[in-house]
Structure formats: C-alpha cells, structure tokens
Amino acid sequence: MVDYRRLGLKAGLEVHQQLDTANKLFCGCPTKLRDNNESIYEIRRHLHMTESELGEIDRAVMEAVQVQRRFVYKGYDTTCLVENDEEPPQVLNQEALDIALEVALLLNMRVVDETHTMRKIVIDGSNTSGFQRTALIASNGNIVVDGSAVRIDILCLEEEAAQRIPDDGRTYSLDRLGIPLVEIGTAPDITTPEQARSVAEHIGIILRSTGKVKRGIGTIRQDVNISIAEGARVEIKGVQTLNLIKSIVENEVTRQVGLLRIREELKKRGAMRIKADVIGVSDIFANTRCTVIETALKSGIVMAVNLPNFGGLVGREIQSNRTLGAEFSDHAKRFGVGRIFHTDELPKYGITKTEVNTVRKKVRAGPDDCVVIAAGDEGQVRSALNAVVKRANEALDGVPEETRRALPDGNSAYMRPLPGAARMYPETDVLPVRISKKRLKRIKRSLPELFQERKERYMKDYGLNEELAELITRSANAPLFEQIMRLNISPTLVVMTLEATTSELKRRGVPVQNLEAMHFIELFELICANKIAKEGIPRVLEGLANNPDKTAEEIASEAGLQTLDRVAIESVIERIVQSKRAFIKEKGYGVIGPLMGVVMLELRGKVDGKLVSTILKEKVSDIIKERG
Amino acid sequence: MKVGDRVRIKKGDVTYTGLVMPSTGEYIVLKLDNGYNVGIKKDASTKITVLKKGAKIARRKKTPAPLGNRALPKVSILSTGGTIASKVDYRTGAVSSQFSVGDILSAIPELAEIANFNGRVIYGILSENMRAEYWQELARAVADDIKKGADGVIITHGTDTMTYTAAALSFMLKTPVPIVLVGSQRSADRPSSDNVVNAVCAARVATSDIAEVTVVMHATSSDDQCLIHRGTRVRKMHTSKRDAFQSINDKPVGLVDYKDKTIYPFGEYRKRNVQELVLKEGLETKCALVKFFPGASPMIIDHYADAGYKGLVIEGTGLGHVSTEWIPSIKRAVDNGMHVIMTSQCLSGRVCDRVYDTGRDLLKAGVIEGEDMLPEVALVKLMWVLDRTDGQEEVRQLMQTSLAGEISERSTYG
Could you give phi then psi for residue A242, rounded to 5 degrees? Predict the structure, then answer.
C-alpha cells in the first residue's frame, strides 16, 4: 500500500465539459458533430509563431513551431468562415455565458465583474486561428467531497478545438471547433488517487445536473495535474473516463518516484551534465541484420550518442511496461525518427553483440554508460538524439515539468513542455462582457436542483426505492420521467421502461435513438387508458423506434396489441378450457400452470397476465366443481 | 496604481493579484499570473495594494533585420502600415499598424533567402485613412528607390484601399522593375496570419521580370498560392477571406506557388528593363465617385458641380445608366466644364450607352463611357488625366485608351 500523504502527493483536476448550446461560442453554427465523409471542402494552412503582448514567446509554442506547422482542415455545411479563420468572431454566445455562470454559482465561485476573452496560443493545428479563445469567468470556489473541501480556482469559458482525424497527423475536422465548453480547475488539494476520482465524479454530477451540458463520449475530458514532494508538476491531458483517473494518478506517482530514484543513482555515480556528441556509425551497420536500420540506411544514416553513467538506468521501468528509454523515445519521435535503440536493451532486434561493442568503442562508452542509436535522415536523427540528450540531462534534476498525454492503459507519454502565461494574448476582436448583479441574481433564482436533492425528492414524492431513484436522477430522461408522472401510473414501471427496456432494445440492435419524448408519453397514455397491457411495451417501443413517424396507437393496433375487453378474453379462455375438459377433470387444479402457458401463447401482450390468471382459475374451478 | 504595476486587489472576499493593464473603460484591467485578463469594478470595498511599482510592460528588444546576402537582388520594402504589420493597441484595445520594416524581416526570416532587403517606413496608417497626397508621396518614394538601384519594390499596405493605391501608382509610374503591393487579411499578430505567404510570394514577384505595378495576395483560402493581379484590374471582393482580391475583366498576370516559389504567368506582361523610369505624380483631386441607385436624387451632381469639381465618375446600373431625372443635371455639369465618366456597378463587363434611350441621352449630355474600367480605377485615372489636360476631346481620348492595362480592347469569354 502506497502512503500517498508521506510521498506528498498533490493533485489538481481540470475538467472540460462541452455545453449543449444551440450555437457555437463565437458564431451561429450548430454544435453538431459530423461524419468526416460529409465534409464539403478542405483548406490547407500554415501556422507561424507570434509574440505575446509582453513580447515573449511561450516555451510550449516554441517547441511546437520547431516540429510541424502545416495542416489540412475539413469543413462542412454546418461550419462557416469563423471556423475557417476567415471572419472575425461574433459576440460571445450569451446562452453559453449563462450556463458558465450557473456552473460557477453551483461551485460557490466568485464571478468576475468583466470577462475578457483571451487568445491562448496553441499551434498544434487544433485551432485554425493558432489560438483557442478562452475567458476567465470565475474564481475562488469550493466543493466538499466525502467530507474534505477542495478549492475550485478557476472557471473559464472556451471554444472546443478541432478534432484530429485519426491516422493522419495533420488533418483536422472543423465540426467540433468552436463548441462552447467550460474548463473547471481545482486547486492542488487532492491527496489520494481515490479522491481524484471522487472529485472528478462530483464535478461531473454538478455539471450534468444543469441539464445544459452535452452527454456522451468525448463531451467531458479531464486533465490531471500531479506532483509529489521533490517531484514536479506534470499535467496529464485527455483522460476520458472516471475509472482511468485513479490509475493515471497512481502511475504518475510511480513514475515520479522512479525518476527520483534514477536521480539518486546518477548522483551516486557522479554523473555530470552531458554534452551532446552525436557520432556517425553507419559503417558499423553496413551488413546489419536489423531491418529497421537496414531500411533506414538505404537513404539515411545511423548515428549514436553516449550517455555517461546511464548504463542500466535507461532500461529501468518507471511505470509498468514503460522504461526511461520509452521517455527518451517520446522525445526523439517528435522529430520524425521511427524508433531509437539503447544499449540497455541490446543485443536484440537483429542488432548483434559485436555491433553493440563496436558502437560503444567508437563513442568511447565506459562500462557504466548507455549508448543511444537512431537511424534515418541525418537532420532528423541529429535532432532526435539531441532531444534524447536534453531529456537525459533532465533526469539529473529528477522530474521535468511537462504536459503528457494519457494512454488508455493508465500510463502517459510526453506531449510538450508545460505552457506558461506567455501564451495568453487579448482577443481584440471580442469586446469584454460586463456581468451585472442583475444577471447573476436571475441565474441564482433558477439554479437547478442538485442530484442528491432530486433523488430524495423522487423517493419521497413517487415512493421509488433508492436504487431506481438514483438511476432516473442521473439519467438524461429525468425531465421526461417527471412529465410522464403527471399521468396516474406506476413510477417503477416508468423508470424500468425508460432505463431498462430501452437499453435492452438497444442491445438487440433496435434504433432506440429514434425514440422521442412524445413516443413515451403516447405509450403511457395508452397504458393508463388500459388500451394496451404493460406486457406490450417492448413491442410498441420497437415499432416506434423503427417507424418514428407513427403514433403509439397505430403501432399497437398494427401489432394486434390492443387490449381485449373482458368478454373477449373470457371467450378465448372458455374455448381453450372447453377443449381441455378431460385433462382438467383428470388433473384438477394442477392444470392451471400448463394451461396458463397455452392461453398466454394466444393473448401475450394484449392482456394483463394477472387478469388472465384470475379468469382461468374461475373457469377451471367451474369445470372441477361440475364433477362434484 | 499605474499601468505595469504589480498589484493586489481585494474586493469583498476575493483577492486578485497581477499586472495592471491599460484599461479601455472605467474598470481596472488586471493580467493575472495565469495569463488571463479580468475587469474589476472599483467600489467602496475595493482595496488596492501596489506590490511592485513601475514594472514596465517589457517589449522584447527589436531584433535587427538579418544581414542580407549581397549576391541576391536588391528589394526595397516601403511600409505604409496596414494589417501585414500590426499589433494590439492598448489605448483602443484594437489592432493597429505599428511594425517597422525590421519587424517584418525578423518575423518572416524566409524573406532573407529571396532578396537583399532594404526598407523604410513611409507612413504608418490604416488604409482607410489614405489620401491622394499619400499616393503621390509613395510614388516619389518608389521612384527614389528605383533610381538608387532597387531591383524591385514591395509596398506593404492595408487591404481596404490597396487597389486605389495600386491604380494610382500604375498611372503615375513607368517602371523598369516590379512594384508589388502586398497586405494581409488576418492580422500579423495571429499565428494563422496570411502575411507570411503573401510577403514571401510578393518578394518572389519583386525579384521576377514582371516590371509592372501588381498586387500579390492569396489565390484561395489555403496557404498554397498567391495570384499576381495587375494594379489597374484588381478589386477587393470580400470583407475578410484570404482570397478577397480578384482580377475583374482580365486574367491575373500569373500565380506564385508558395512551396516551390515558382511563378506561372497567365499571359503577356511588361518585362524588366524595357522602359525607362518616368514619374508623373500630378493629380487633380477635385474628382468624385458617385453611385446611382433607384430613386437617387440628381442633387448630388449639382452639389459637386457647384463645389467646383472637375471630374466625376458615376457608377451606373447595368450597361451604364442613371435615371432620366439625372440627365439635365449631368448636362449642366458638363456644360460648365466637368468631365463625367460612366462606369457600371456590375463591375464585370463593359459600359455601352448606345443601346437604350437613357444611354443615348447620357452620351448627348456629354458623358464619357468608361469602357470596362473598374469605377475606382476610373476615378484615380480621371484625377491623373485631369492634371495633364482639361480639353474635352483629349480627356475623352485618354479616358478611353488603355494607359496602364486598365481597359481591354476586346471583352473575352473567360
């Protein structure tokens, strides 16, 4: 068991949540995601480095500029010149601002008097403009989760970035660009991985309780800031699920502990700052059996650099299945080099012991040293190995401050240096917005009920048990549930239909996304009027999902699901009972079970099973009594 | 508390710490340590503590322009302001023109591979503040630099009125070297600015053998290519898109590929060193441009005539018409010595006043058909022509002859 308090774990969260507004933050386009194949135009752009208003260039921007800056953007009939960066932004979306203010108040935050939209310079291509528009709305909030207070430092209203098209490093889709989102940043008050998860969950619940945020995969993302004593602040971006947060924190702590141990070991060995001395070693690999190097040599070069005193440390695991060498490789890959090799892992991959020894000799590596080898275009290889040396030197200091990308297994990979304040620049095309006391009062009056309050109300008002109350409270169907409950109907049946029946239908491949509020209301009206039995619900919903333009009543009648009246039911049962007279006389009341099956075969979905059972019992009893 | 001070502001139960920024109104604007600016309204409860005085908002020292390669052609950059060289203005909170030539060169290092630059600031104004006198000053500066041996001249210019300046220079200068106007539609302070591609392509044209006054701007919304437009044929046709500039009634001179820096000409152009440098910058500035609209009052013509205007360009409807009501006013103006040129608000196509009665009446009243000239180009040309001569026939003849590629003899299909 790791003692996180002793390690001095400090973690903070940044939660990004897309808002469910009609329009984007700075233009009138719908906030609708599209299929990439629906794109109707493409534009190609370059991004360039610019200064902040203080005349500084941000270090994160500086590094991105050295890597890659040509991008392709795909546009749609739902995007406009604002996304294309070809028209000044419109005024800040007031619907989005209202939602942001609502969230700020729910998080007990202090709202600024006047909000200034800034340009956060981001030149990885995810914004056509080269910056993300963002405005600080509130600060100084706090929430209490499981008895401990966590301060909420900052709430910003920002535009969502364009989405990178998979398998292509430089094409972005413009549909997502400009969707409003709130970014909520906590103070580094979190002290355990478990708490990180609970805080994220709590903030998520508050966001969803507004009923004005987008739902589904990718609509909420968490970044986690983590440091331990003597470690450094590391930001891990893009954690998409709650369950991953805990392991992200755990693994980052492991990583920082591992890096600190490596620092101690290097100190013990008397390691000094390394001067990059990248040396050509192509001749040694002239007849190599390593396919990576062999291919690279056809048009390129093999080079190596010695890392004194790093022997055995580069191959050391600092997260499960990730070594310090993997960190080196993250840095090297940014310069277009496919992979690097280090002597801690060699001989392997077709590289022989002789080759390794010859390389070690050529770069004058001692027994405690590690040699890193890369192959490819000379410029790229040189930059890659220089980046490795830079990262190795950082290992002498312990943990480098940086931004990392969350990996699906709970580990993380290097992304870029931590950006600083120098990347903020005022967005001069958007006027500052004053937030009046009157506006805050109006929003305060209509703050939504929090989930806990809603759950308790459902238990009290509708007599739902805690489990079902919890289920419907957190569901997007909660407002629909309340609407249906105006009918005189069993709350349990409604919750089960909205939550269980629909998910069962979905599992069976029924297009339940076609079902709208009106469909459910019609359905329950039919049930209230005894026009169909509750057994018919799945079939009506299935029919409606497949034919959303029809009414519930039409579906019920086409499927022959309309409830039979008592006379009709009696006549069906009478017919069956008469045909089985002998059987009944012989077996007595024992026949009710088997006969029920026969009757229901004919009546399923059209009648209430209880009623059938009552009538059947009467009829059987009549026949048995005849005998006596 | 002054701009640049580091302060702590306590308001109610909130404390903000940061740098005081120039304010645009009565609210205090503070740049917080996280980089965000916020506006704070001062009230009775607000307590301000200055933590560190007078920390100036440090501007990075200007990097000196990279030393040119003497083997490359000599190109002069004349800066007139505009978006290709702009910065945030804290007084107004908006973008304004402030860059020097050195700033342009250090912002676009690629330029140094194309030519050996020399530059100066002629003036730093937004192009809507341009005046005819500024065109003349600019023409003199261009001529000076060519005399001093420039192999090409680049003029950085705001895009709004760039085409007026291009037309003015086209008439004022006979040039042995390329004269290129360039600007940007998205300000230079943003990473996505079109200034880099435009400036690099302009430099390429300035070192080419296209010895004409041209405008070089984006060909499409993408950062791939620029079109080279003849200075008398180009018009800004969109408020904000990168490819706002289009040639009307003529093909562009050619295209520059940004990637391989190659020029692809579309037709004939005047070659380098075939004509001697001649500067004739005189302009009759008492000229105006009037747009006709249905129901427009002819009083506007009377007004200009009474104010002593020497020339008037009318942007008429269709083939070149105004309402019958205007004809007496036009006739009176012409009879009193004003020269009236008819152009079309269609922009594309040629004026012809011989088809309909109104047209024939306009001709009778003394209106000169502006052929297929753009209205703004006709205005600038009229200013230039009226400084040469006042003779009615001579003006007519000059206005209907192509002096700088502004008129085509034939209206072609494509």
Answer: -60, -40
Domain residue limits at B42:
6-52
Mean pLDDT across chain B: 90
Assess whether pLDDT exceeds 60 at residue B393: yes
Tokens of A527: 């049930």
pLDDT of residue B308: 96
For A216-239, write each residue's pLDDT tens digit.
888 999 999 999 999 999 999 989
Q: How many CA atoms lie within 13 A of A383 on its CB side?
A: 16
Q: Is the pLDDT reported for residue A214 higher than 80?
A: yes
Q: What is the residue-averaged pLDDT of chain A?
A: 89
What string of DSSP letters covers A496-537?
Answer: IIIIIIHHHHHHTT--GGG--HHHHHHHHHHHHTTSB-GGGH
CB pairs under 8 A between A and B: 130
**Which residues of B does the annotation mark as catalytic?**
83, 159-160, 236
- Write down the H helix ranges in B94-175: 101-107, 132-147, 162-172
What is the distance of C-alpha A482 from the center of its chain?
29
Contact of A139 with A110, CB cutoff 8 Å: yes
CATH code of the domain covering residue B264: 3.40.50.1170
Q: Is the dihedral of CA A199, A204, A207, A209 positive or negative?
A: negative
CB atoms B29 and A116 under 8 Å: yes
Q: Does A118 touch chain B (CB under 8 A)?
A: yes
Cross-chain residue pair A56–B24, CB shorter than 8 Å: no
A558 — alpha (psi -120 to 50), left (phi > 0) or beta?
A: alpha
Measured between beta carbons, which residues in chain B are less than 8 angstroms from residue A119?
190
Residues 13-32 of B with CB under 8 A from A: 13-14, 16, 24, 27, 29, 31-32
- Indicate yes or no: CB of B191 within 8 angstroms of CB of A86: no
A525 in a structural domain: yes
A161-171 pLDDT, tens digit per residue, is: 999 998 667 89
**CA-CA distance, B195 to B177, in Å (whole number)?**
23
Cα of A244 to nearest chain B Cα, Å: 28
The pLDDT tens digits for B202-241 are: 999 999 999 999 999 999 999 999 999 999 999 999 999 9
Interface test with B, best of A65, A74, A112, A170 (most B CBs within 10 A): A112
Q: What is the arithmetic mean of pLDDT over A420-428?
A: 76
- Is B263 found in the same domain as B313? no
Q: Work out the minimum CA distance from B190 to partner chain A, whole angstroms.
A: 6
ipTM over 0.85? The verdict is: yes
- A591 is in which domain, residue-wise? 566-627
- Residue B36 near chain A (CB below 8 Å): yes
pLDDT at A53: 44
Q: Is residue A421, in this structure, part of any structural domain at all? A: no
Both A124 and A75 in one domain: the answer is: yes
